[in-house]
Amino acid sequence: MQEPIQKVIGRKIREAREVAGKTQKEIGDLLGYSAMGVSHFENGARELKFSDIEKLAKYFQRDLSFFLASASDITFFRAKPTDDPGVAKSLKEFDSLVDSLG
């Protein structure tokens, strides 16, 4: 079974944070979330906005590809656009990025 994208991204965030010697609180302060919020992202329990992934890539001096596995390796999580406007916006931004790369 393939791993959901939020779990892949969360694992990569944790990896980058630990390599850099940063705490969840420091990453939360950077993104405007609590340490608990960062923990939820790292565990794949919450979905991160694409703009936050971009901030993390710049902060950790990593390519976006580090955080985003190829589509063949992951199963995309899809919420109905009416569920959460923030999620819908993030999905639209992500889809635009994928379209521009392919």
What's the SSE blueprint?
Elements: E1 3-4, H1 5-20, H2 24-31, H3 35-42, H4 50-59, H5 64-67, E2 74-75, H6 85-101
Parallel strand pairs: 1-2
What attributes does this structure have?
mainly alpha; 434 Repressor (Amino-terminal Domain); two-stranded parallel sheet; 6 helices
Per DSSP E runs of 2 or more residues, the count of β-strands stands at 2
Instruction: Give the overall shape, derived from the CA principal axes.
Output: globular
CATH superfamily: lambda repressor-like DNA-binding domains
Fraction of residues in H or I helices: 55-70%
Order of helices and strands: EHHHHHEH
Instruction: Describe the sheet with the most strands.
Output: 2 strands, parallel
> What would you report as the Rg, rounded to the nearest angstrom?
13 Å
Spatial ordering of strands, largest sheet? 1-2
CATH architecture: Orthogonal Bundle
Count of discrete structural domains: 1
Poorly predicted residue ranges? 71-76
CATH topology: 434 Repressor (Amino-terminal Domain)
